[in-house]
Amino acid sequence: MFQFNWKRLGIVAGLSLSLVAAGCGQDDTDNTSNNAENGGDNQTEASTNVGEEIDYTITGIEPGAGITQATDDTLSEYENLAGWEQEISSTAAMLTELENAINNEEPIIVAGWSPHYKFAKFDLKYLEDPKGVYGDVEYIGTIVRKDLKEEMPEAYTILDRFQWEADDMESVMLDAQNMDFEEAAQQWVDENQETVAKWTEGVDPVDGTSIELVLTPWDTERSSANVAKIVLEQQGFNVTLTPVDPAVMFKAIATGDGDASLAPWLPATHGAFFEEFEGEFDDLGENLIGAKIGLVVPTYMDINSIEDLEPAK
Question: Does the global pTM surpass 0.90?
């Protein structure tokens, strides 16, 4: 299985782009605060102050994430971002900096995505992206290896039916801040038996058949993978979850080293990988609609668009 081919597949790990995400439930309409308390500064003045106060820096995540590449592209595409930089670190570091800034009501701009629990925990908004560098609203899809339908029809049926809402995924991610992901997923399954029953209706149980779900190592994908794992295990499957870089994920499913993945963000974020291996796996379509990536700020910041930012001085 896939674990034993790590050296062969892992060589591309450091070269890939992904999200994930990659993972909402937050309306991205404008919800700006009044800036009268700042002496009636106009938008340009507020924007200039934002850049100066945050040292013309976007707080990013891991270097292998698709949103990281998209943010680099944004810095190149928008002339008004001349001199700005992206601080690449980790998802955990970005969230820590975001929370610290919000606690002190300080300005911050982060590379963000939804679904994600941060939108349930904080009042946030996306900056408008007039040039469309981050793409439109996306969906998270399901792909499976060729022959899975013939060899594991029960698993294929469940995975094909697996669909849920952004709010569902976000609730699992939020609960997982206080418990492990499997426990949070089990809680969601217990509270959503009607939905689970639709996925498993008429599916015969199996006796210990092994199946490997390949995912990217972000909370969005941990949520869907753990929910699918519990549902499949209730049907008698022996499920292994393997988190990898997205390029490795697509290649694993295309070569049959992994059985299925609920993690692709499409059509833009993981579109290049999808096109590279298209036809070498079965595409089961979306399992969640309404995914999004972009630059995110707290709603108290008096800025609405990427174009409102000023070049570095």
Answer: no
Which residues are within 8 A (CB) of 194 and not within 5 positions of it... i.e. 6 or more apart? none
CA distances from 51 to 42, 130, 312 (A): 15, 19, 7
Structural domain of 273: 138-292
- Together in a domain, 255 and 300: no
| Residues 195, 53 within the same domain | no
Please tell me whether residues 266 and 303 are part of one structural domain. Answer: no
Instruction: With beta carbons less than 8 A apart as the criterion, state whether 172 and 26 touch.
Output: no
3-class DSSP state of 223: helix
Report which of 263, 268, 312, 309 is spatially closest to residue 286, judged by C-alpha positions.
Answer: 263
Share of the chain above pLDDT 90, in %: 76
* DSSP assignment of 100-166: HHHHTT----EEEEES-THHHHS-EEEPB-TT-TT-S-EEEEEEEETTHHHH-HHHHHHHHH----H
Q: Which amino acid is at 59?
A: T
Model confidence over 204-216: pLDDT tens digits?
999 999 999 999 9
Q: Are residues 145 and 285 in the same domain?
A: yes
Q: Same domain for 36 and 53? A: yes
Indicate whether 287 belongs to any domain.
yes
Q: Cα Rg for the chain, rounded, in angstroms?
A: 21
